[in-house]
Automatic annotation (TrEMBL):
The lineage of its organism: Bacteria, Pseudomonadati, Pseudomonadota, Gammaproteobacteria, Oceanospirillales. The keyword Membrane applies. It comes from Halomonas casei. GO terms for molecular function: ATP binding. PANTHER family: ATP-BINDING CASSETTE SUB-FAMILY B MEMBER 10, MITOCHONDRIAL, ATP-DEPENDENT PERMEASE MDL1, MITOCHONDRIAL. Residues 41-320 form the ABC transmembrane type-1 domain. The chain crosses the membrane at residues 38-62, 74-96, 153-170, 176-194, 261-285, 291-313. InterPro entries: AAA+_ATPase, ABC1_TM_dom, ABC1_TM_sf, ABC_transporter-like_ATP-bd, ABC_transporter-like_CS, P-loop_NTPase, Type_1_exporter. This is ABC transporter ATP-binding protein. Residues 1-11 have a biased composition (Basic and acidic residues). The keyword Translocase does not apply.
Length: 611
């Protein structure tokens, strides 16, 4: 493939889908629309049954007024039946809405998790793990609460006011006009409240996130805090954020309380009944209003006030759910590393690797992390990537399993561009041992089996032996079934590293990338880890990212990077003869090995310290 074509493809891969737009909450819950139809149906029937009790009561009063006592029992039975039916249907609506909410939560979390797994490392760093976890946990939980507790109210909010107003007009259109005037006044006032509350809700969310960030920072940095400032400056940042949050909430609640008090007065049934009793008495006095219609109107108008209260609750809920919905959509449309279709994928001829003019920048406006890096790795050989910090070693290594794609150039395995391979095919070829030895909460065996869940206990033990881990596992209380704790906290750094190596041994991939695999090992563990790595590298195509040059003296090829550029390439002995960057790094390593505290003191003071 030509380089300009590769560049165009890389740009396309970093572009979000065309024609995307921000959906509302109703578009987001489309996966459960069939279930929601049953929720709406049960809720609507429950509302109709509930409102029918007022209608039946009005007819009961009419029968009593006309001395038709013989039929009163039927009306009472009908009222009880409507009440029971309304209650049962309401329970069914909320039961079904909660089931639908759990279903939606499961769908969205799986969808977002799968999407996050296809994000580049640069995108993940830019978004931040805190924001991504908030979407997966908090925002989807908020959406769950909305679907479970609010959606069953929508039929009631839509049906009850219309049904009630129609019934009021049928009873007496003159009194109905009084009620309509009151409702219009409430709606206009509610619109004003909603406009003020929308902006306040956004500010409230930002203030709350600031407090949460301060709390997390204070707790996570506790060792540093105790060492340097005793918590004074760090705690003051948290306290200032909390003070700003408290001041805003207090001011907001005072405003909300004043609005709420006015609404409670307008929506209070007594407020409406006062006008209806006065005007109804006039109509009843002149004989234009029958008693049963007047009583029925008073009862139904009280119900109408109750039908408006859920509307207020829903208005507030819709405002609160708007931001979580927006974030879910935003993260679900982050640009991913695109995958070729399975029917168009290619298979590599062998396990040789070629980096061809690879360039990459984490930020479009920033400095390039890699620039026109080209070299090849023959099958079955070991290549070491070395260079100063920030040279681009880990960035380059992370491109092989497609944690991120180059902006320009191509990476090929067996002559095939890795972008022309499916992720599944690539993962079956490339194994990776990370610098950060991350373990999941579970047993040691579970962590070794991470990429091979069907592996037998014998295979797990064999992998652990090769990784020099079996000897420290067996004395543990439960052996291979011993829990490692969150992030492997119950194990030492060297033990965690050997578990991750055992995991890679069990995967048995023909290509292996080792990213600073001994970076955090102490001298005792380093020997065991080095032996495990040598066993793991046998008969594989290996790329090693290393700071400790002593580990790479016998590799087949050393690639020296500096500031994203390939400076030197060759064997250890040949690079030493060139007297270049690698030579200077080796000299620095040699001097560092002979360093001691005593010698450093003598060099600076000219006197040997007394003991």
């Amino acid at each position: 493939m030509k380089k300009d074509e590769a560049t165009d493809r890389n740009k396309q891969q970093s572009t979000p889908p065309e024609g995307t737009h921000s959906p509302g909450v109703w578009e987001l819950i489309q996966p459960i629309r069939a279930r929601m139809r049953w929720v709406y149906a049960c809720s609507a029937l429950s509302t109709i049954a509930s409102l029918s009790t007022a209608l039946i009561l009005a007819f009961l009063i009419l029968n009593l007024e006309e001395n038709a006592v013989t039929h009163a029992g039927y009306w009472i039975v009908a009222m009880v039946a409507c009440v029971v039916l309304s209650f049962c249907l309401r329970l069914a609506a909320f039961y079904l809405s909660h089931l639908a909410a759990f279903r939606l939560e499961n769908i969205l979390r799986k969808q977002l998790s799968a999407h996050f797994a296809r994000l580049s490392n640069a995108t993940i760093r830019k978004q931040g793990t805190g924001a991504m976890s908030k979407v997966l946990v908090d925002d989807i939980r908020d959406l769950h609460a909305f679907v479970a507790d609010t959606t069953p109210m929508f039929p009631r909010v839509m049906i009850a006011p219309l049904f009630t107003l129609g019934f009021l007009v049928w009873l007496d259109w003159r009194l109905a006009l009084v009620v309509i005037v009151i409702l219009v006044t409430v709606m206009l006032y509610l619109r004003r409240v909603a406009a003020n509350n929308s902006q306040a809700t956004h500010v409230y969310g930002e203030a709350r996130e600031e407090v949460n960030a301060s709390i997390v920072e204070f707790i996570q940095a506790m060792p540093v805090v105790r060492t340097f400032d005793g918590g004074h400056s760090t705690f003051s940042r948290y306290q200032n954020a909390l003070d700003r949050f408290s001041a805003f909430v207090s001011r907001w609640y005072r405003e909300v309380a004043s609005f709420g008090n006015v609404l409670m007065v307008l929506l209070n049934p007594l407020f409406t009944l006062t006008f209806l009793l006065w005007i109804g008495a006039l109509f009843y006095g002149d004989g234009t209003l029958e008693l049963w219609r007047w009583v029925g109107f008073l009862l139904v108008s009280a119900i109408l006030a109750e039908t408006i209260l859920p509307l207020l609750f829903m208005q507030s809920t819709l405002q609160k759910i708007a931001e979580p919905v927006e974030r879910i959509y935003e993260f679900n449309n982050l640009p991913t590393i695109r995958e070729v279709a399975a029917d168009k994928a290619s298979k590599p001829a062998d396990y040789s690797i070629e980096f061809d003019g690879v360039s990459y920048a984490y930020d479009e406006a920033g400095e390039a992390a890699l620039e026109q890096v080209s070299f090849s790795v023959p099958q079955g050989t070991v290549t070491a990537l070395v260079g100063p910090s920030g040279a681009g070693k880990s960035t380059l290594a992370a491109m092989l399993p497609r944690f991120q794609d180059p902006d320009q150039g191509a990476i090929r395995i067996g002559g095939v561009d890795i972008r022309d391979m499916t992720f599944d095919d690539l993962s079956q070829i490339v194994g990776f041992v990370f610098q950060e030895n991350f373990l999941f909460s579970g047993s040691i065996a579970d962590n070794i089996r991470l990429g091979s869940p069907d592996a037998s206990a014998k295979d797990v033990e064999q992998a652990a032996r090769i990784a020099q881990a079996h000897d420290f596992i067996m004395p543990l209380p439960k052996g291979y079934d011993t829990p490692v704790g969150e992030r492997g906290v119950f194990l030492s750094g060297g033990q965690r590293q050997r578990i991750t190596i055992a995991r890679a041994v069990l995967l048995d991939r023909p290509i292996l990338v080792l990213d600073e695999a001994t970076a955090y090992a102490d001298p005792e563990n380093e020997v065991a880890i080095t032996q495990a790595l040598f066993a793991l590298m046998r008969s594989r195509t290996v790329i090693v990212v290393a700071h400790r040059l002593s580990l790479i003296r016998d590799v087949d090829q050393v690639v020296v990077l500096e500031k994203g550029l390939l400076r030197e390439r060759g064997t250890h002995d040949k690079l030493l003869v060139q007297n270049g960057l690698y030579y200077r790094m080796w000299e620095q390593r040699t001097r560092a090995q002979g360093w001691s505290i005593r010698q450093s003191f003598i060099d600076t003071s000219g006197q040997e310290p007394s003991v």
